[in-house]
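# nightly structure sweep
# worker-07 picked up a monomer target from the shared queue
# config: single-sequence mode, recycle default, output format = structure tokens
# input follows
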Amino acid sequence: MPETILVTGGAGYVGSHVAVALVRAGYAPVVLDNYANSTPAVLPRLRALAGYAVPAVQADVRDAEALRTVFRDYPIAAVIHCAGLKAVGESEVRPLAYYDVNVGGAIVLAQVMGEAGVAGLVFSSSASVYGEPDALPIAEDAPLRPHSVYGRTKRVVEDFLCDLARANANWRIALLRYFNPAGADPSGLLGEAARGRPNNLVPLLGKIAAGELADLTVHGGDWPTADGTGVRDYLHVQDLAEGHVAALRYLAGARGALPINLGAGRGHSVLEIVAAFERACGRRIAKTIARRRPGDVAACYADATRAAQLLQWRTTRDLDAICADAWRWQQGGGRY
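# output follows
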């Protein structure tokens, strides 16, 4: 029988792709989501890609009783924790909500996992825990100086999980620090469905190319980079999802808590991303150069050596694949 894996936030952008990657790798995912930032309309898409109806439970990760019911109803072997609030700007004006959901949810989940005797956890962290880097590429031992409330909640959860693993040798925890996931399932059935104006560059380009939004505002054309625009590490969401599966396999023979970067290990500038999206959609994307935003940095990209060595994982899909799949998703409406 395949191992049953609970995916919290499994109807979200990353979580839904993780669920599909688990099925393809021979696992049996169970989705838990409260649909605060997602929709149950993703479930028929998961069924189409998985070939069967993936079990789904509507519940909040902070609801201990609901979690206990899930662990009673399913033989959960490990958990991939993707549930949480993730908008950097929103976190600055809603800090209570972010600490409640992101930190409180992780504590309740760990409590119920402990009661159930389940000690394998893959945690969806973020490269935002690093803040402005002292050096590039960014390795896992770089200082953690998050600039946002969102990033600080991720750092707090990482600290908590490390303390938990030090106190109890049974825990096996991977702290996956994502860089910039983008793209969509090549089928066009799953993708990033932002509510309102997208915060992330690639889905924003999709809306502009489709005529749903006006031109792109590029924040800063005078950064100390090759073309003057900011450089970030983009990885295909399928590569990211497969990184979770690789982490799950790694944990089978590991102990303790370990941070691991998931990134391509190289950066692309804003103008490079725009050019790749123009190739994907076959049209020009209007853009204007504006002043830099406070808090932005010139460049940020991962040292992905640890993931390659320990997980035998590296990205396999390039920038053109990211943009082609994102555009296919947008052509299907870009929403559920």
